[in-house]
Amino acid sequence: MSVATWVNDTLVRDPTERRIFATLAIITALLVVGVFAGVIGPRFLLFQVALVGMYALLSLGLNVQWGYAGLINFSVAAFWGLGAYSAALLTAPNSPLGMGLHPIFGFLAAIVVSALVAILIGIPTLRLREDYLAIASLGLAEVIRLIILNERQWTAGSSGISGIPSLLEWLPLTSAATTASIVVVLLALTYLFLRRIHRSPWGRVLRTIRSDEDLAKALGKDTYRFKMQAFVVGSVVMAIAGAFYAHLNLYIDPSDLVPLTTFYIWIAVILGGTGSNRGAVVGAAVVIAIREGSRFLNDIAFIGNLGLDVAPLRLLFVGILIILIMRYRQDGLLPPKDELIWPSAQKESSAASRGAAASDGGVVTDGTTSGGPSDGGENQ
Amino acid sequence: MIPLQISPFQYIVNGVVFSSIIVLAAIGLSLVYSIADFANFAHGDLMTVGAFSGLFSVAIFRPMLGDVGLFGLPLWFFLALAFGMVAAAVIAVVTDRIIYQPMEDSGSIGLLITSIGVALVYRASIFLSFGSDSERYGVARQGPIPWIRESFGVAITPRNFVVVILATVLVTGLHLTLTRTTLGRKMRATADNADLARVSGIRTDEVIIAMWLIGGALAAAGGVFLGLEELVRPRMGFDILLIVFAAVILGGIGSVYGAMLGGLVIGMVHELVPLFNQWGIIPVGSRYAAAVAFVIMVAILLVKPSGIVGESG
Fold first, then answer.
1. Domain limits at A289?
2. Phi (first) and psi of residue A339, to 5 degrees
């Protein structure tokens, strides 16, 4: 299959999507031109790429929880922090633990710790209505932040941990290029893994639970177990993003553990399209653009002269954005479509629909929200 | 804090004061939960809106009234309280009309996520109009009432009294409204089963407006009292939202009387944490008071998710 057909089949399906991808392509092209014209420093751009990649990982993690299974997790920042602190504490030679281990142990610790915490918070809440998890996870985030702030003997408190080693320093690239390539690889692996499990029978059960939990129960599924698995998988992805950030920024303190970080990721997921992995990645890029873009506002003389503080304006913008998306475009920019269906099944059913009445094709474009067990990919 | 040995009763006094604030906030949150059927994450910031509206009106009332006092506090403070309550009630209703009402179809989860956006908009508006600094109402500092201090060894300031008594009055007023008036009966009917209420001729729309008015006013009262006892900060409401939620869950989601009881217990425990720590019952001090409330909440979810008063989860 040529690249062009692949792009046509998997990325560009309808005019809206084509416009969105065209816009993204233009922006990317402008950034690249900017680098060659010397307007944008390549280091800066690579750092932003790494940041987008990290946000995309967080969004993919939240998408497993909220998009696949309908779980409301308001402690994204906390799981990210658990990952970042696991990595920082184990690998930085001058951290309070002072172990200076190889980064691989940091990543392993991030995975184990986040999985344990996810299970602990899942046990009391996942059997109950969705909003209990929302409330409990908001509390969990606060408790984790309190612990990191107060237990200075273990976490260095608000002064933070510095001296975290960079990853793969032996690569013949600049450090910015190395981290950017690592995040691209990490993101690609996570993306493929999550897409694989989303299309699997496991993913279909989750989608059923999201649209009608009672139905899933009636079909004999242990919905509690499935929700727990989704919650743990999502939280582990968030912690990996955190561990990566520790090695990207080389410094970590509790100031990013605030709820606002969590709400940024929520915007990325619902703006991108709940349940859609492509959407989560695009949403993450948009959120970074908002964050970094508003930072530049300060530099524009006109706005600087008004004496406005940008932080509250950004808060206002984020709030209004959440309200507007929820009200007018709950599907987001790139809602999930037939990517949930195995390519071979898609071919079969499109062949069938060509032969039979065109209305058969409707099954194929079934989205997540309505996608029950009768989804087009069932016979896989 | 007084460096001397603090009497255990002092912690209980602090607990009663803090409980009054939490009860006021928890009732509003619980009302929204039972009638509008969603967890309103903007409730904490609604408290902040009330507190800052009160602060705004101080500038108007204070020059008008000067030093006229009432119950040991300046009269303008009571007017500022009333102003804050009215402002928050109106803002709550307006928010419902322009944001929550048109979104009824998106269900309780859609409304929950939207309420996060509303919370951020409230807070950003406060940052933009009042700045990010902590403020005070400017009520003169008062020492504890001397005779109570001498006879019982606990420090109670006149403002402690005012907070507890006014909170009691408001809660009693709500109780009487719910049990003795037609509006109260309509509210309880709507909370119990909105469809049935509508079928029996209750205009649930009016009930929902009344609910937002009451919930907003009580939240603002809680916010103003919190600002009086501590500081008026833009993040004050969001910071205690977790504790308010813990109170609502402890009492049983959607139960107004549960919220009162839950608020009392959680508020009390929150202030007793240092005492328990001193006695060696729990290993953490007051810095973890919010975490203790959270642990209680999780324990309740494990043992009896319907709460101590609620019937169904």
1. 48-165+172-352+367-375
2. -70, -10
